[in-house]
Amino acid sequence: MTPDLLIRGGTLLDPAAGTPRAADLLIRDGTIAEIGDGLAPADDVPVYDATDAYISPGWMDMHVHLREPGQEHKETIATGTRAAAAGGFTDVACMPNTDPSLHTRDGVSFVKERAADLPVGVHPIACVSKERAGEELAELADLADGGAVAFSDDGAPVHDAGLMRRALEYSTMLDRPVINHMEAPALNPNGQMHEGEVSARIGVDGIPGLADDVMIARDIELAAFTGGHVHVAHISTARGVELVRRAKARGLPVTAEVCTHHVTLTDAAVERSGFDPNTKMHPPLRSADDRAALKEGLADGTIDALCTDHAPHAAHETEVEFNAAPFGITGLETAWGLIGRELIAPGVLSVEEAVAKLTVAPRRILRLDDPVLAEGEPARLTLFDASTRWTFAEEHVHSKSQNTPFLGDELVGRPWAIYADGRFVQHNDPAW
């Protein structure tokens, strides 16, 4: 525990408050006690030198897979939150496609209890349907009462329009978003990567962008009809961005997130890597035009939040041929370095805009309170820079799995530490 700490020399960056400013920050008993210039340390208070670093409200990744219960060979709540801390995240929202899935209040309670003593907050997302089977609505009110922050059958879409309609109608009463995995399965029976020029040339079954787009279009109309909040998970297509943009122009309750790997890589990575299973995503890496549209959607505010879809898989599952490999990669440890390299350095987003998409946006989507950089408020902080160039290596992996295409990549910008729930955790020592 580190209940008391003086953070000296940093730049406070609070998206909700406005202009960054240089200041020292004194924490007492886990609460921001004083903000000012040249604060004098007391004998019993450790000092952290944050010169050249930003201090922001704690980052949140609203789309991760912690795999527990039932898939602990891939990840556990403890190892997943270690990866989150190393990546600068004080909070994560975990998806319900575990074994058993989080379709009961007991399942939600299990996750909350397992995470209760960790310095990274874990916010469970519960199922839309019982056992994620897409046939019968889960007990949404009971799940919300138990602490579920949203509903999703992620990993599979809510393909029954009637079921999705009912879920959205309930969600309006419960003030929770419904997060849909946007895919029409009938348009993607055997796909392994993006359907396009690359898939045709290398002979791999493709997943058309249309599979995402028709589901997004359907759910936008259901949001218009019910008034329920639809959140588009891991948006990946140019057409999907345009559909969300038009929905927002209509004033509909529709929000969207994008994964860091989708703004970084394209389907060309599959061929260039020699069919590396770590280039196999769901939704898949799309075309260069799609990637450009995703960046444009971030810049103009169409896409609200940045996330990772952190999806760990054990080595024996990924060390197989491409078509037999599972979909998904880890992402928590590389998120900020990719954001810095792909979005901040080229001028797509400012540092402040990027931080807002990791702090304010995900919490508002999930109806969680914003952490505030103000005296008397709980200290929930991320310390980072946006310029350090560093090479991501195995020593930086704190997840239980290493299925990432970014080992050996130079990244730009580094998270240095988090402070949350009375604990100070530096990026190179997230041990608990």
Explain what the structure shows:
The chain has 432 residues and is an alpha/beta fold. The protein folds into 2 domains: 5-55 and 375-426, Roll (Urease, subunit C, domain 1); 59-365, Alpha-Beta Barrel (TIM Barrel), CATH 3.20.20. 28% of the residues lie in helices and 21% in strands. Strands 1, 2, 3, 4, 5, 15, 16 and 17 form an 8-stranded mixed beta sheet that branches. Strand 12 (230-232), helix 7 and strand 13 (254-259) form a beta-alpha-beta unit. Helix 4 crosses helix 6 and helix 7 runs parallel beside helix 9 (288-299). It is globular, with a radius of gyration of 21 Å. The termini are close together. The model has no long low-confidence stretch (mean pLDDT 96).
* Rg value: 21 Å
Number of helices: 13
Compute the average pLDDT. Answer: 96
CATH fold title of the largest domain: TIM Barrel
Integer count of domains: 2
Q: Helix coverage percent of residues?
A: 25-40%
The residue ranges in which pLDDT falls below 50 over 5 or more consecutive positions are none
Distance separating the two termini:
11 Å
Strand content: 15-25%
Structural class: alpha/beta
Per CATH, the architecture of the largest domain is Alpha-Beta Barrel
Order of helices and strands: EEEEEEHEHEHHEEHEHEHEHHEHHHHEEE
> CATH first level of the largest domain: which class?
Alpha Beta
